Q: What sequence folds into this?
């Protein structure tokens, strides 16, 4: 059969970022550095890429609604077509990078990999990487809902142009990001000088890689921990903010859940609040099941599977995380806790 | 019937050969078998004596169409090329690197699309352009008259390239892919992103839904009498009746070649109600519509069948797999 094993599928990295943040700089680095990998690149502005690469494909970002009449259930029609076409050059490239426009919502790109069977057969979503401008992100989070979406959706966030802000301003911007998305890996950069291994081959959507969903409060690179605990709400040099409309909700339940309660609940929550839920993830201990159940989702689309067995030295506990807009936190919390076995 | 256990077999009449690349389309140019390969090559000629014609050098073939005399190919190099029985490749168009997404051919007329731009070249060589509302995935010429159907998001459009004025829009929500007219021109059928077919009866634009597929339908074939439309996308070929004035509405389709593997390609015999079916596991079967009797052509193995075609007389069947394996069946007697 043509069904490729998960490891043989072409990884797809989605590169987002508000206008001027430095996406194209990162893309040009990926294409020009001598890493031995060959990339097919899907771009919106042909001219931006300064590198000669025969596999650069221009896209129109055609967002198609699915026929269930729901506003959040969308796919990138052009991407389905492009991936089908790229597979005619199988073996000529190792990975695909999809650069979105500065105002794009990453959800339709991600959902394409949940919905389209032909895409799933040949490709897998690797990670959503968002490039943010250290100087302007705080402003954009106030006036541009697209920028906030890109931060909330990200698996990896590159805080670029840190040379143009003071350490205090940088801490401020990191705290703003953490208020929206405590789970993404953050990297500080000038001219997008992150290690490419930190943005590529992340396997962020791979169920086997959802090992731990503790918030990632530390910045992954060059921690300049000036522990000036002058402010009551700071620790690890981070302020704690609460974003007015985008939050994450994390709930832990000691012990097992009852699958007969949990499965209908997670389906109902994602159906009813799907338009507001950008991402969700969970590791769940199902009653009488020696294996960990892991799931992840984008809006209403869920992907879940039994994973490795719980180890003897591991506490059986269940944890779910939602990132979204105006989430009904108390209802979600009560609903999940009521799934206890 | 179970896999590989057909009581009747034509497998001993198949000449197996290596196509030299992933087969994406099969055709006959006159009497000569032709396989379009993903890597930009058309392989023309008998299994043991074929020419390799580099129609898209260094590029990939994305779409093809064949009318029995000409095989036209569209590549990711932005070019449309036509190959005839003489094996000469003639360039029809160069869209400057924009991928060719769809092709249609009828007589001396050719149409192609790149993104939203649809181009039609008439018998005099005049090229006209129309901008679709979204990217076009399928093109088909109506059997009579110089009229073209183009599929896109939320419907299809009927365009008379030589006539001024707005083209006629056929609306149906969703993304439409391939397009085909019934041979009598009464119906337009499209395959859709969401595992369904859609049809319009052109006299009154009445909608027809054909659903229940587990996968996308990317291969469509009309029977020689125009009464049946065979389709891929399920664990059998689903064959819809189009004889009546209402088409398939309110009628159950037939199922041919029910197996536990997905049908990837279908090709109706040009003179009889016999369907050739290629599967995702490499099997090829013939199935008689009247009683669903099956004859084995190729046992499973090797990967999906990507190309399947009868010659004009119905004496030979050519198939090719994604793996590069291929075969030519000469019907005995
Ligand atoms: Zn939805």
A:
């Amino acid at each position: 059969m043509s069904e490729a094993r998960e490891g043989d599928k072409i990884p797809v990295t989605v590169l987002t970022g508000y206008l001027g943040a430095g996406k194209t700089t990162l893309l040009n680095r990926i294409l020009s550095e001598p890493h031995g990998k060959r990339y097919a690149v899907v771009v919106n502005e042909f001219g931006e890429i300064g590198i000669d690469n025969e596999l650069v494909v221009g896209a129109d970002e055609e967002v198609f609604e699915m026929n269930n009449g729901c506003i959040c259930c969308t796919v990138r029609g052009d991407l389905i077509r492009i991936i089908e076409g790229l597979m005619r050059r199988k073996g000529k490239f190792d990975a695909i990078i999809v650069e979105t426009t500065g105002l794009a919502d990453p959800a339709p790109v991600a959902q394409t990999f949940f919905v389209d069977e032909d895409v799933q057969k040949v490709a897998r979503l690797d990670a959503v990487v968002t490039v943010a401008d250290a100087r302007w992100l705080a402003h954009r989070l106030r006036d541009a809902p697209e920028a906030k979406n890109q931060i909330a959706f990200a698996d990896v966030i590159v805080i670029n142009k840190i040379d143009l802000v003071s350490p205090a301003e940088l801490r401020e911007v990191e705290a703003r990001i953490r208020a929206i998305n405590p789970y993404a890996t953050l990297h500080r950069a000038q001219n997008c000088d992150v290690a490419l291994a930190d943005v590529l081959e992340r396997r962020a959507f791979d169920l086997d890689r959802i090992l731990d969903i503790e918030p990632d409060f530390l910045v992954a690179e060059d921690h300049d921990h000036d522990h000036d605990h002058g402010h009551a709400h700071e620790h690890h040099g981070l302020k704690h903010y609460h974003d007015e409309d985008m939050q994450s909700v994390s709930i832990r339940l000691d012990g097992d859940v009852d699958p007969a309660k949990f499965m209908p609940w997670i389906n109902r929550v994602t159906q009813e609040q799907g338009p507001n839920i950008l991402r969700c993830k969970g590791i769940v201990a199902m009653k009488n099941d020696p294996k960990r159940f892991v799931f992840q989702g984008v809006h209403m689309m869920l992907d879940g599977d039994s994973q490795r067995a719980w180890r003897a030295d591991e506490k059986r506990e269940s944890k779910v995380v939602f990132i979204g807009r105006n989430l009904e936190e108390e209802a979600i919390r009560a609903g999940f806790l009521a799934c206890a076995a | 019937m179970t896999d590989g256990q057909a009581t009747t077999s034509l497998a001993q009449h198949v000449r197996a050969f290596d196509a030299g690349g992933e087969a994406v389309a099969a055709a006959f140019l006159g009497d000569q078998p032709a396989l379009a390969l993903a890597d930009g090559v058309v392989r023309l000629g008998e299994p043991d004596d074929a020419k390799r014609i580099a129609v898209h050098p260094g590029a990939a073939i994305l779409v093809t169409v064949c009318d029995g005399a000409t095989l036209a190919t569209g590549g990711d190099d932005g070019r449309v090329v036509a190959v005839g029985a003489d094996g000469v490749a003639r360039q029809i168009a160069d869209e400057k690197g924009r991928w060719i997404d769809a092709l249609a051919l009828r007589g001396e007329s050719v149409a192609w699309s790149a993104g939203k731009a649809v181009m039609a070249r008439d018998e005099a060589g005049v090229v006209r352009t129309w901008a679709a509302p979204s990217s076009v995935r399928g093109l088909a010429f109506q059997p009579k008259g110089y009229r073209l159907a183009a599929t896109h998001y939320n419907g299809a459009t009927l365009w008379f390239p030589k006539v001024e004025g707005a083209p006629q829009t056929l609306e149906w929500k969703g993304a439409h892919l391939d397009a085909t007219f019934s041979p009598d021109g009464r119906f337009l059928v499209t395959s859709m992103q969401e595992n369904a077919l859609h049809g319009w009866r052109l006299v009154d634009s009445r909608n027809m839904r054909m659903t229940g597929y587990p996968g996308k339908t990317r291969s469509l074939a009309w029977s020689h009498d125009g009464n049946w439309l065979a389709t891929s996308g399920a664990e059998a070929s689903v064959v819809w009746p189009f004889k009546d004035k209402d088409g398939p509405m309110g009628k159950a389709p037939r199922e041919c070649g029910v197996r536990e593997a997905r049908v990837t390609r279908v090709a109706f015999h040009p003179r009889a109600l016999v369907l050739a079916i290629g599967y995702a596991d490499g099997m090829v079967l013939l199935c008689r519509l009247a009683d669903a009797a099956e004859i084995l052509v190729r046992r499973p193995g090797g990967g999906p069948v990507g190309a399947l075609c009868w010659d004009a007389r119905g004496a030979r069947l050519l198939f090719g797999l994604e793996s590069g394996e291929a075969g030519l069946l000469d019907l005995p007697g």
Notes: The interface with chain A takes residues 22, 24, 38-39, 58, 60-62, 76, 98-99, 101, 115-116, 134-135, 137, 153, 173-175, 193-194, 215-216, 261, 280-281, 303-304, 322 of chain B (CB under 8 Å).
